[in-house]
Specification:
- The complex is a heterodimer of chains A (362) and B (306).
- Chain A is of the alpha+beta class.
- Chain A is built from eight helices and 20 strands.
- In chain A, strand 11 and strand 12 form a beta hairpin.
- In chain A, helix 2 crosses helix 3.
- Chain A is globular.
- In chain B, helix 3 packs across helix 7 and helix 10 runs antiparallel to helix 13.
- Chain B contains 13 helices and two strands.
- In chain B, strands 1-2 form a two-stranded antiparallel ribbon.
- Classes of the chains: A alpha+beta (362), B mainly alpha (306).
Amino acid sequence: MSLLEMRHITRRFDDDTVAVDDLSLSIQPGEFFTLLGPSGCGKTTLLRMIAGFDDPDAGSLLLDGEELAGVPPEQRPVHTVFQSYALFPHMSVAENVAFPLRMASVRRAEREQRTREALEQVRLADFAHRRPDQLSGGQRQRVAVARALVNRPRLLLLDEPLAALDLKMREQMQIELISLQMEVGITFVYVTHDQGEALALSDRLAVMNNGRVEQVGDPSDVYEFPDTRFVADFIGTCNLLDGSVGQSETGLVYLDVPGLGPLGVASDASPRTGAPGTLAVRPEKVRIDARIEPATHENRLEGTVHDQLYLGDVTVYRIEITDGQLVEAMLPNTSARGERFFDFGDQVQLAWRHDAGRLLAD
Amino acid sequence: MTRAGSLQTEAVKRRLLVGLPTLVLLVLFAAPTLIMVLATFQFPDDFGGLAPAWYSDSDGVHLDLTLENYERFAGEAIYLKIFWRSLVYATLTTLFCAALAYPLAMFITRAPSRIRDLLVLLVILPFWSNFLIRVYAWMSILGPRSLFTEGLNGLLGWFGLGPVTLLFTPFAVIVGLVYVHLPFMVLPLYANLCRHDPAWLDAARDLGASPWKTFVGVTLPMSVPGLVAGSLLVFIPALGAFAVPDILGGAQGAMIGNLISDQFLSARDWPFGSTIAVALTLFVVFIAWLMTAVARRLPGGAAHAR
C-alpha cells in the first residue's frame, strides 16, 4: 500500500486561479520523492495541504489509508523543513530540536537522549547550546532537518530547503540529505524548482506545471524519456524540432521537420500520418564533427556553427541548419588547452541515433 | 584639503552632532533635576517658592538646608499610603492595558495588509483631540445620569444588586488610566509582533503544538521585549498621573501626582513637593531597571533577541 495517496486533489484560490488541478499521485513508503516545477506550478500549495496548513477544495488525501482532511497540522505525523528553516530564535539548538518531543509529551530523559541522537545525526552535537543566530546557513538547515526528524514522522516534507545556500554548500547538503534519508528510512517529499537537485536526490520525481502532474518517474526516465514538451524543456536543455508525422515502420517514426527533412525517432507509438509531432533530442546526444559517415539508425544534418558557449567542462555549439533552425550540440572539453574544436561559421555535420531522440505527441 | 585635515573636520562635525543634543539634555533635563534635588533639602519661602539655600552674616556664609522633608515623607502614613495606592493603580493599569492590547495588536498584525495601516491609525487617533477633553468625556460616560451608568444599574437591579456609583471611584481612575495609556501598550507590541516570522507559527503547529501551545511557547516569549517596552511606557506615566485621578477620582482617588501638584499649587511647599517627586523618580528608575533586568533573563528577552 502506498504511504500517501493523493486522489483528484483540486485547490482554487479566491480569484478563481486553480493552484492544484485534479491531481493524483501516490508516494511509496521509504522513497525520496520530489515535486519539481517552476514557481507557481502548485507544488508548495500541495505541500501545504499535505502538512495541513491548507485543505483541498476537492479530492482526498490518504496517509496510511486514512483520510487527512480535517486533521489539524499538529496531529498529522508529518513534519516539515521550511524554506526559511523557521527555527525558534529564543530557543537554543537543543531546545529547538526537543520542541516536537516536548509537544508530544515525551519524558525528559528520553527527550534529551533523542535530541542528542538527532543532533549527532546531523553532526551538530557540539552546537547544542548555541542560538540559531550564531549558526551558519548550512548549520541552521541541519538543525531544521534534525528538528523535523526527531519525532520520527511518517513523512518528512522539505520545502526548497537548500535554496538559501550557496552552490558548494548545496551540493554537500544534497549528499548529506541522501545518506540521512537512507539512514532514518523515513519517506521524504521534497519540493524544488531546481531540476539538477531533483535529479540528484530523488528516487522518483513528479514534474508539475499549472497545478497538474506532467510526468512521474525515476530521474533517468524523466530525463531521458520526457512525455511532454514542458518536461523536455524544463529539465535540462533539449532541442525541440516541430514537424508532422511522415512514414513509419515498426518501432520507428519519421518526422518531417520543415527545413531538416525526415528525421527518424524510435517510438512504440504508431501515430497517424500527418499528425503534428515534436522530436526532442538532448544536446549531449548529438555528435558533431567536420565530417560524419552516414549510418543507419542515425539522423545526419549539415550546418554552420552559429555560436558557442564555453562552460568549462563542456562547450555548447549552436548549429544553424537552415535559416533560423538551430540545433544544439554539447561537446565535452577533452583537451586541457581550452582550444576550440570548431569556430564560428565552420561547416559541420551533426548526427544522433534514432533511439537518442524522443517523439512528443504534443 | 589634506586627508588628515578632512578627517579632522569629520571629527569636529561628529562632535557637534553629538554635542548639541548633549547640551540640550544637560540644560533641559539634568539641570532641572539637580535643582529639584537641591530643593528637597531647602526650606519653603514664606509665600511659596524656595528659601535661599544659604545666608551670610558677620560670621560668614551659612548653609540653610534640612532633611526635614525626607523625614516628613517617610514618617507620615498618609504619604506612603498614597504612594502604595499609586503603585497599585499603575500596576493594574499596566496589566489591563496588556490584556486589552495583546489581542488587539495580534489582530492588527494578522489583518490584511491593506487595512493594517488604517487600524494603527485608529489606535493613535485619540491623540488628535485634547487629552483633558477625552478625560472629561469619561466623566460624562461614568457620571450617575449617563446612559452607561443607568443601563448598568438597571441590569444590576434585575439581579437584585446595585445601584453602583462609578464616577469618583478607584474604578473610574483605572478606567481613565487604561483608556489614556492603551496606545502606548498597543504600539510597541504591534511593532514587536510584526517582526515575528509567520513561519514560526507554521513550524510550531507542524511540529505538534496546538494553537494555544504555539502562543504560549513561541508568540508570547518572543513578544517579551514588546511587552516590557509597552509596560514601561504605561507604568511610568500612570504612576505619576495627576489629571486623570484629579478629574475622575474625586477625593478618594488621589495619586502621587496629585500630591505633588498640591504641594506646588495649593500648599505652596516646593521643597516637600520636590521631595515626593524625587522619591517617585528614584522608584521609577528602580522599576525600570528591575523590569529590563527580568526581561533580559526571560526567553526571547533582549539578551537573546537582536
